[in-house]
Design goal:
six-stranded mixed β-sheet; five-stranded mixed β-sheet; alpha+beta
């Protein structure tokens, strides 16, 4: 079993170290946490992409690649995520664990120093970033924003979130907007970078065989040049609103052959921080989170109203999203049946095998997280943003104890807020 240690390096700078000998590689994450806002989201997302282009010591991708090759072929990539109403930007990387080097050499310390170089000592031209790097990565960011429309299922989820949470920070996309990205120049990006270094909360994550104190020492050295400030961001609970009455209805027409019916529901404020969360998580699984769920077995399989139908929980925000692919002429029938299955959950029409199948699926997923370094890192980042220290095993134990009555109570607190339908263009 892994031991998880959390400690402060500087004010507002923390390390979460997962000490385990389970893996042959070590995973490292360095994340800057900042409020997600429409006016800064694109700039924040662009910063790690530009930083990854080079450092003062390794001023281009080729020399950076050589430095990584010298560390037994490790890798470091920029990362941009949204956890609740917090934007998390930075780097994740993987390196051969020290226990497996052929000559007993240590990789942790030089790997930590490389992370420190990427964050604190970027390749520069004068008093700012290299203009070609800014221009190139800005173009890549715009391409990524534009490309979101290509994956229609995820696009529909993004759109219902934006409509449902319009005016709330959660409604802002993690990459920002094309207009904001296009307006960025080198000076503005450098200023944003400097603000992040002094204002963002900084979270270091390590998973590997090295002792936590050694990891702490390595990053204290690597991040020595960080601005020392008492005013770093502290994540807070997400804003909560009551569901729209009546529910908001949004339609959009694109060149698609299959409709995308997506619904956003409010959880009446239940988030991962609340005692009712395990019951809500199990309720989501019963309703639409597994292949034994009501949406899958009834709406998709028995009635053939959808090509797919599932539900997922935005656990830090208190939002449930229902996603389905439908024929254009079946949208109203599919919508009615999806809501009917939710009503079944609210009325307690849940068979024992449905409840236990959902429970086993959730618990299994949590234990599977322990076998993946990347999933563990993502789990702990969410926990940190939420201010929680509960392990996957402890959460699994709480889910084991959830009763049918608690699932029903959680279901009864769900309210439909927004319905988004992506339809085909008229001929």
């Amino acid at each position: 079993m892994a031991n998880v240690t959390r400690m402060e390096l500087f004010s507002g700078v923390h390390l979460t170290a997962v000490h385990t000998k389970k893996f042959k590689s070590s995973l490292i994450g360095v994340e800057l946490l900042t409020p997600i806002r429409a006016e800064t989201a694109s700039a924040n997302a662009l910063v790690p992409m530009v930083l990854r282009r080079g450092t003062k010591r390794c001023p281009d991708m080729e020399s950076l690649s050589t430095a990584l090759d010298d560390l037994y072929g490790g890798w470091i990539e920029p990362a941009v995520r949204k956890k609740g109403e917090t934007q998390c930007i930075g780097f994740t990387g993987s390196f051969l664990d020290d226990a497996y080097t052929m000559d007993g050499s240590q990789i942790l310390e030089p790997a930590a120093m490389l992370f420190g170089e990427l964050l604190l000592h970027p390749a520069q031209a004068g008093e700012g970033f290299v203009p070609a790097y800014v221009e190139g990565e800005r173009g890549n960011l715009i391409d990524r924003i534009r490309a979101q429309i290509n994956e229609k299922r995820q696009y529909a989820l993004n759109r219902v979130t934006a409509e449902m949470c319009s005016g709330e920070p959660f409604g802002v996309d993690k990459l920002g907007s094309e207009a904001q990205a296009a307006a960025l120049d080198g000076r503005a990006l450098w200023d944003r970078y400097q603000a992040l270094l002094s204002q963002a909360a900084i979270e270091i994550y390590f998973c590997g065989s090295a002792a936590p104190e050694r990891v702490k020492k390595a990053f204290l050295s690597a991040l020595e040049g960080l601005p020392k400030t008492e005013a770093r961001f502290q994540p807070s609970p997400c804003t909560q609103k009551a569901a729209s009455v009546p529910p908001k209805l949004v339609e959009e027409a694109l060149d698609v052959t299959q409709g995308k019916l997506t619904m956003g529901l409010r959880t009446d404020g239940i988030t991962v921080q609340d005692p009712e969360y395990p019951a809500l998580a199990l309720c989501t699984a019963v309703f639409g989170g597994t292949t034994t769920s009501k949406l899958f077995l009834n709406v998709r399989e028995r009635l053939s109203l959808c090509y797919y139908a599932s539900a997922q929980l935005e656990k830090l925000k208190g939002v449930m999203l229902v996603s389905s692919g439908v024929e254009f002429d079946k949208v109203e029938e599919a919508k009615a049946e999806i809501l009917a299955q939710l009503e079944h959950c609210k009325r307690g029409q849940i068979e024992d095998w449905e409840l236990e199948g959902a429970r086993r699926s959730l618990v299994s997923t949590l234990y599977t997280t322990l076998d993946s370094q990347s999933r563990l890192e993502d789990y702990w980042l969410a926990q940190i943003v939420a201010g929680l220290a509960e392990t996957p095993e402890a959460l699994a134990a709480r889910i084991e104890g959830v009763t049918k009555e608690q699932v029903i109570a959680a279901a009864q607190r769900l309210s439909l807020d927004t319905v988004y339908f992506l339809k085909g263009k008229e001929d």
